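Notes from the pairing session

We agreed to fold both candidates in a single pass and log them together. This is the raw record for the first candidate, unedited. Please don't reformat it; downstream parsing expects exactly this layout.

Candidate A
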Amino acid sequence: MVHVNRKTLRSHRRGLTQAEQHWAAEAVAKAAGLLIARLNLRILGAYWPNDGELSGLPILQDALVLGLTCTLPIISNQFLTFSRIGPTTRFHQNHYKILEPIQDTQSEVPVLDHDVLFMPLVGFDQNGARLGMGGGYYDRTLADCLTESKRPILIGLAHGFQQCSFSTNPWDIPLDYVLTPEETFQIKPG
């Protein structure tokens, strides 16, 4: 494991071909499907991929076919809200040029109602630390969840090369699992 910075990791994942990204997303979707079935997860949140992130969209496509509730995040001030998606969902680009559902209060799903959130990352370590893009949206949104008895399972989606070492902060929220195309990491508590 090498100590790497965000810029290097982001450049590496953006350098993957479309075929490599497609294969990785499909491989991770298979692993996610096994976890969803084993843990009986019913309400899933993921993200619209950007900047070379490994796509969680195949996970949502498979889950929608199974009749599960799926959501995508919407940036709202400095936090994320999650909106239910389906075949008729309309999208627009946010200020980062990332597609997100058009806000509709009736389709909002509170973060604590989720069984699982599939999260993007720039890097991860063996302890479940997640290096994000640096905006802190997930950490702020999930901060209150850590004190709740029932909170979403947090699963990072990554390429294997994104495992590295990096400095962490006290407010960083650790992942429960990391799925790569080659491996499923279950993070051990403590």
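Candidate B (folded immediately after A)
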Amino acid sequence: MTNKRSAVITGASRGIGAKTAEALATEGFNVIINYNKSEEAAKNLRDKILASGANADIYNADIGDYVQAKGLMDFCLEKHGKIDVLVNNAGISQIKLFTEISVDEWDEMVRVNLNGVFNCTQNAVKSMISNKQGKIINISSIWGIAGSSCEVHYSTAKAGIIGFTKALAKELGPSNIQVNCIAPGIILTDMMSGFSQADMDAMKEEIPLQRFGIEEDIANAVLFFAAEKSDYITGQVLSPNGGILI
């Protein structure tokens, strides 16, 4: 056990999660990098963080499974004795007409994107309540606020995260636990790989700042909510989106 703050980041082997893990490690956190399938990427990220002089471990878990999510939180408690920050970042996406979404696809979207947040958070907050402190940072999406055509199941799950955040913030406030949400706009990650250049150009024209977000934009928002300077902020949704949704 150390006196350093500890952070668990789900879905942290790549994309926003990986950049968030790096940012928190740079700020002195002991970080737990959760991954499901991308073991090599998770190991490479851990090694990169360790080489920088910061501290990181990896843990394999499908956070949509309650038992595996509990194992992830128990791992952090065994390593560091506490969970100071939980970043619920893991998620999947799919573009599909509503009439063509299968029951299995709907269930999987909710299982990973929404149930995963419940699974991890419920197993993290017990120690946070005992310690009378903690921060839960949930990654939603602008489509959880505004809805997106051909992403009804994704939008539904991400909207659920926002409701979850607001309700849990009220419940955990007396325990000095802050629960906040980040709803990114269009961010350049591998989730954008399926779009043509023409589609990308059209989307960019709709953004007042005339650019897509980058992973650091979201990691910086996580750093703000993870810091003590945000201790009086809870139940809020911060949307780094370049002005596309105001």
